């Protein structure tokens, strides 16, 4: 169990240092921005918190003082929670409101750190076994532990309550994504607070919950990784969004290939340019593929039997649109064979009944053709 807890501290620490280094690379152009300096301070405190946590798991005294790493971890955790709240204010609140609330959070953070230090010393925290900080029935140390949990839970609640309205107010897409991720982070870290409270109270009453004790460490590590991502989202978010859009475009481009290939072999004139494997200018190539599929489909009109392919979807619970996609795919497959043998069906499609879908909306057209192409591939494998 201690190995798992130590690993969670290491993961949280590494994600914090990665976020700090990533943000420090932008110092030259961003240092004059107060929000950026607050962000760097938050990440430094975050790194300190989980570095001290990893050291505390070792059990050895820090600088010769017993449990000093535990105290420093808790004090820096309070400071970094306050700093994260201040970042949120600087991101979303008006200047006067941000200054007023920043002053309030700074005073609260200092008061909490003074209270924790006093309770730690009164409870003889330096002379106690490290295991007592997992939970104890000793009143002063129990008060210290519960006060620390409250200091972590309150910012989680306030950040969660503020992120939703702030995300709806902003027009900045990357900031909106960061705020939404931050609200999820607040929930995960609040679950850490609940799990940690259960650990403390069960230990105080002598109840052993076994491996469930590690849940708090897992929630903490997951929350800190998510926090590191949310605090750096404005930098990597736009690039990640572009990458995801490219991946979706490429997936659609590849999904259409089997249908396009057979239509191209049947009607080579549909291609504006010779086909190739390059994926540069992918948006243009995807548009061309959609247009060429439609052109090849039109060339097949004399060979498409309108009565063919009905009920060919093997899934009984399939939607009406899915059944239609399978029907159209089966008609295309049969029409390609009919064209090879120059066999014109009696009940074929004419120009008047071909375009039964809205082709002016590219996103809808792409989604529909992707369904047809997927059905076509299934029929190809089944034949």
From TrEMBL:
This is DUF6545 domain-containing protein. InterPro entries: DUF6545, MAB_1171c-like. The chain crosses the membrane at residues 36-56, 68-92, 104-122, 142-161, 181-206, 212-232. Keywords: Membrane, Transmembrane, Transmembrane helix. NCBIfam families: MAB_1171c_fam. It comes from the Bacteria. Residues 245-377 form the DUF6545 domain. It comes from Streptomyces virginiae (Streptomyces cinnamonensis). Coiled coil: none annotated. Pfam families: DUF6545.
């Amino acid at each position: 169990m201690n190995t798992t807890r130590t690993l969670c501290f290491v993961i949280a620490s590494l994600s914090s240092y990665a976020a700090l280094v990533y943000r420090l690379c932008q110092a030259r152009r961003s240092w004059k921005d107060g929000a950026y300096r607050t962000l760097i301070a938050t990440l430094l405190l975050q790194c300190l918190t989980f570095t001290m946590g990893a050291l505390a798991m070792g059990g050895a005294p820090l600088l010769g003082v017993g449990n000093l790493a535990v105290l420093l971890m808790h004090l820096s955790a309070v400071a970094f929670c306050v700093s994260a709240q201040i970042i949120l204010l600087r991101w979303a609140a008006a200047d006067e409101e941000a200054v007023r609330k920043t002053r309030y959070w700074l005073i609260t953070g200092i008061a909490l750190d003074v209270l924790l230090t006093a309770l730690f010393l009164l409870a003889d925290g330096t002379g106690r076994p490290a295991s007592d900080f997992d939970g104890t029935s000793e009143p002063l140390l129990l008060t210290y532990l519960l006060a620390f949990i409250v200091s972590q839970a309150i910012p989680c609640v306030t950040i969660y309550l503020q992120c939703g309205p702030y995300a709806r107010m902003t027009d900045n897409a990357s900031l909106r994504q960061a705020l939404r991720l931050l609200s999820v982070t607040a929930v995960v870290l609040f679950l850490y607070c609940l799990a940690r409270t259960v650990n403390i109270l069960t230990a105080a009453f002598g109840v052993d919950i076994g491996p469930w004790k590690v849940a708090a460490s897992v929630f903490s590590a997951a929350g800190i990784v998510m926090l590191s991502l949310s605090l750096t989202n404005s930098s990597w978010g736009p690039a990640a969004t572009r990458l995801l859009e490219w991946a979706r475009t490429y997936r659609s481009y590849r999904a259409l290939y089997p249908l396009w290939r057979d239509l191209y072999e049947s009607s080579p004139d549909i291609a504006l340019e010779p086909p190739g494997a390059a994926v540069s200018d992918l948006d243009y190539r995807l548009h061309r593929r959609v247009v060429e599929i439609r052109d090849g489909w039109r060339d097949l009109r004399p060979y498409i039997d309108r009565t063919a392919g009905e009920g060919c979807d093997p899934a009984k619970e399939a939607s009406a649109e899915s059944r239609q996609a399978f029907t159209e795919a089966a008609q295309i497959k049969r029409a390609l064979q009919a064209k090879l043998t120059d066999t014109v069906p009696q009940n074929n499609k004419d120009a008047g009944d071909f375009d039964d879908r809205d082709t002016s909306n590219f996103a809808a057209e792409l989604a529909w053709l992707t369904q047809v192409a997927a059905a076509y591939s299934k029929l190809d494998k089944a034949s």
